[in-house]
Amino acid sequence: MDAEEETATLALFAGPDAADGRALVVVDPVDGTLNYIRGSPDFAVMGALLRDGHFTAGLIHFPVAGSTFWAVRGAGCFADTPNGARRLRVGGAEQRLYYDPRTPAPWREALAEHFGRLELCRCSAVDASAPATARGRAAVTAGIADRRRAIGLFLSLEAGACVRLGALDWSGEDPATLAKA
């Protein structure tokens, strides 16, 4: 288990190494904690399963909107609807690009010339899953993605988005192992 919040219960689980052949569960009970505290609806509950160093399933639930999205490796990305599950594909998203607070100003200026509509986002569940959930066309952030941000990236990947981590076309590898490479 790899959980963002450290608790006494977490110590009952084996250490967070997905490359050793064991399954790894990644949990973020409140992604966008600052948003939650400030009363913004942009926060989520996220979880994922990694096997052999790759994401195999991921889930994001936005409590305020009452919407749930999930993906399974090779099977696609889905949304929970009143009529059952609906498969998601990228395209038709709002003409918006999300950026996080770490994104350098020169990057934002260059992106604004091409995208036009940029929006600051403080919740990786929102920005990383934006292509899958149709909240935006893309997201950019400086630095390597961690396992929690990669949950949203995995949903976008399974919905058909191109996901890049630096110079790498990402295919669902554990970001913790990429950082060591």
Question: How would you explain this protein's 3D organization?
Answer:
This protein is of the alpha/beta class and 181 residues long. The chain is 24% helix and 31% strand. The chain is built from six helices and twelve strands. The strands form three sheets. Strands 1-2-3-4-5-6-7 form a seven-stranded mixed sheet. A hairpin with a 3-residue loop joins β5 and β6. The radius of gyration is 16 Å and the shape is globular. It starts with a strand and ends with a helix. The mean pLDDT is 87.
Task: Please outline what is shown here.
This protein is an alpha/beta fold. Helix content is 24%, strand content 31%. A hairpin with a 2-residue loop joins β3 and β4 (54-62).
The biggest beta sheet reads: 7 strands, mixed
Spatial order of the strands forming the largest sheet:
1-2-3-4-5-6-7
Q: Indicate the low-confidence ranges by residue numbers.
A: none
Count of DSSP helices?
Answer: 6
Question: Overall pLDDT, averaged?
Answer: 87
Q: Between the first and last Cα atoms, what is the distance in angstroms?
A: 22 Å
Measured by DSSP, the beta-strand proportion falls in 25-35%
State the order of secondary-structure elements, H for helix, E for strand: EEHEEEEEEHEHHEHEEH
Helical fraction: 10-25%
Structural class: alpha/beta
